[in-house]
Amino acid sequence: MYDLIIVGAGPAGASAALFAAKAGKKTLVLDSDQSITKKAWVENHYGAKDISGPDLVSTGLEQMKKFGAEHKAGKVTKIEAAADGAKAVTEDGTFEGKHILLATGMMANVAEESGIAVKEGSEPKIQKVVDVKDNGETSMANVWAAGTCANKSVHTIVTAGHGAEVAINIISELNGERYVDHDILK
Ligand SMILES: Cc1cc2nc3c(=O)[nH]c(=O)nc-3n(C[C@H](O)[C@H](O)[C@H](O)COP(=O)(O)OP(=O)(O)OC[C@H]3O[C@@H](n4cnc5c(N)ncnc54)[C@H](O)[C@@H]3O)c2cc1C
After folding, report:
1. Which cofactor names does the annotation list (predicted)?
2. Pocket around ligand 1: residues whose beta carbon is below 6 Å from it?
């Protein structure tokens, strides 16, 4: 049983994964390698003067793996409710987590096909998004969403930040108290 399963390894998913794994949570990231960020050249991400989308995505993967997050290639076909968490069904098997975070970018189909509430997107070119509460929770218990699929502005700094924000909410729920991750200058 994972503490957190994340669907999607773009800026939202990998940012969430690095926070969760760094907090000591058993974290699995399932990804179909279709990140729109891999088409981008980015000059508006705070702290990076300029960076290619592929480099941003691969650096994010390295960061989350450094803290112990597992990465598996593959497509999630369905999310199912479970007694004490939720399940992610893939072509290669089913994975169970206490929480699941959808970070599926422009694709809200897996949420919709799983019976999770979706709505019309309000950002340019984004048709459907997962209907989330302010803290990132969806209509299915223990399932959350972050980034583009949660109707956030389609920019890497925003989606990465939202992935971190929702991960902090999930970590806080697992810990039973608000979580803060501050390292001191070395
Ligand atoms: C051409 C282009 C240029 C851009 N330029 C900029 C720019 O200059 N500055 C800027 O800030 N932003 C830019 N962006 C936007 C930026 O890439 C996105 O806003 C943001 O990074 C999206 O992050 P995300 O994590 O929400 O989604 P994504 O990066 O799309 O990641 C979603 C991930 O979820 C995975 N996934 C989806 N469904 C499933 C499933 N069922 N099972 C498993 N995995 C799944 C996908 O494979 C993907 O890896 C640009 C985008 C494009 C297309």
Report:
1. FAD
2. 7-13, 30-37, 39-42, 44, 53, 75-76, 103-105, 107, 110, 147-148, 154-157, 159
